[in-house]
Amino acid sequence: MRAPLSWLREYVEIPIGEVPTADEIEVVSEHLVRAGLEVDAIEIVGGEVVGPLVVGRVLAVDELTEFKKPIRFCRVEVGALHGHRDTPGERGIVCGASNFVVGDLVVVALPGAQLPGGFLIASRETYGHVSDGMICSERELGLGQDHDGILVLPPGTAAPGADAGSILGLGDIVFDLAVTPDIGYCLSMRGIARELATAFDVALRDPGTELVDLPAATGDNPYECRVQDPAGCDLFTLRTIVGFDPGAPTPYWMRRRLAACGMRSLSLAVDVTNYVMLETGQPLHAFDAAKLRGPIVVRRAEAGESLETLDHVVRSLGDADLLITDDRGPIGLAGVMGGLDTEVDATTTRLALEAAHFDAAVVARMGRRHKLTSEASRRFERGVDRVLAPYASGRATELLLTYGEGEYVGMTAVESAYRATTIELAADLPERTAGIAIDREAVIARLEAVGATVGDADGVLVVTPPTWRPDLTDPADLVEEVLRLGGYDAIPSTLPRARAGYGLTEGQRLRRRVARELAAFGCTEVLSYPFIGSADLDALGIPKDDPRHRMLLLANPLSDEAPGMRTTLIPGLLAALRRNVGRGQEDLSLVEIGAVFRLNEGQDPRGVTDPPRPSVDHRPSEAELSELAALLPHEARHAATAFCGRREAAGWWGPGDDASWADAIESARVVARAVGADLDVRAGATPMPLHPGRCAELVLNTPGADAHVVGYAGELHPRVVAAWGLPARTAVMELDLGVVLVRTEQVVMTGSLSNYPVAKEDLALVVDSTVPAARVEAALREGAGDLLESLRLFDVYTGSQLPEGKKSLAYALRLRAPDRTLTVDEVTAVREAAVARAAAQVGAALRGT
Prior knowledge:
alpha+beta
């Protein structure tokens, strides 16, 4: 929202100078920020224009036809003080524009002036004449991007020679404000001026409570209106004007203010509705009454109806859409945009001016459904003053009659009963909430400054919020207002002190440990959006009957392509791989640790239409919490990794290594080691998206419990690689980290270190090629017993020196005792026991025997 300071000062007497200094502007900015309005920028209108700038009247135009492009030599009256010595009161100026005629008022930059971009104006000879100044366009003055040519002022704007800077608003300060959704009333000069009046403790002239004195209505059949849906529209007004001059120009002061607020001038009728909307916050719409057929009716859409809106898009309508209609059908989306068939144009002489109050939720849903946002919908969906419509339409009618002439016929209106909201507030609640002293009188004063009416009922404050604050519905809202007006900076910043023994939970410590270990393994952690769509799962080759296709669907998704909560982390990781590969980075190792969501048995993917809504003034009961919990899907914490390209770059040390399924499996082992889990890796029937011959099940072994499959790792199926546009042999891993943590005993983070030397033993075992290395490793660990400190596979051989169907696995064993140096006999016994257990369990034999 852009707010010119000169416009705001019409409603509030800000205690600064007529020409504010930089320090005074900064003070105003600070007060706006304290009120909750973020100041994105402060601009000075035409700030680069310096030197003499005057109003001129064109006296004569001489067309110079000897040149290839249109050139005109103009005699311009610029006042007695600014004329050339040889032609008192006049200047001769060469100009290439042709959108002005003799008698027009223009803006003239005299010699010595400087325009934006450092363009200096001087007398110079050009096209055979001396050009003694410059006739300016809006773009040349830095006032806009008007491409129509010279800026022509309306007749009677000022006398020739008058200072044009004040007329153009040069030097005016414009605050560019970020207005959050909860303070929609500040999408108007009225709302911003109210905040400044409160901040500076000065009087406010409220343009939203001034009912203008219109001419007596002729009563000659004002256009009729009806409302069939009072829940969606509880106030609808329609004023009729006839004899309107469609060619009447918009006064320059209004065009100037609209431009300062970022709006382009279109026509008087449209400009007036936009101006009053910016002034009061009430959106209005002008219909060409000659194009209407029958009374205007507000109703819901019927099956098969459509509407071509002002943006030339034909929109199919549904029964949730609230419409403005006549006897022919829809003529507007209520509170969003009007229809093309009834728009005002250059021939409109009969106006029907609509001002209404529409339900905020209805307008917001329509805007999202049709992917359509307008200045009107921005205001309606944030909440517009319930009683403002007749005041704003009266103001707009006054401006239309003043500048476009015509005759006021009258107003028709439909209004539902209005019931003001009342809120009971304990006077000490703001003090208890903020932790600072706020007495009862201060609470009342600040609420009244907001515009609320405050009463007393047995010591409890009874607050009636003003009509322009529909966001104030609960005691917490009132507390926020009290604290906001007192200044959030007055609330001390005090960090809570955790009691001894409190801090991270064991699960949080373990998850952080997992992330650190995977980072040390070479993975970069990413954070992807938790939303996916069926197309993502189809691209993974996941069958439609797979549980991962049953997603919890969002009521208002950010994208129609991703309407559900994710049931797997893989799509997010593959999307990150694809983005990076598309930008030339093909060597990637990524990890994500996050939540996935699976629907419970019989749970509706779209949730429930009327969920329980516990009160906010007390803690929900256990029954209410249980009822709410039953609506939630099962949430699990997963860890997933993805690898493509090279894991090790080529260099003097060798050709480098490509990422493979082995890296995906090893990343699962890294997770297991980080939390002290016993994870078995074995071949099995793995689901898509993995390659059936290069994948593994991840099985968690827990003492006293059955083995549990917690995930899968391996290479992506070639069809999946092609569907996602990824490098060949891309590999992934995903496991249920929550189950791993629950079934894993607490990890001892510290322990004693032995001062005795380590004993090193290497051995190579020959096994069937179908035997997983993990099973061999598990057997060696079991046989070696407590003296085994570490075990590492360092070589796999499948060459011609082995029988067909066999492979050799070489392991490095590190043995150590905590209280002694191991003897040769002890080391030999451990080695033999480990080999014996491997022989018994997997049929292993020492290589070379």
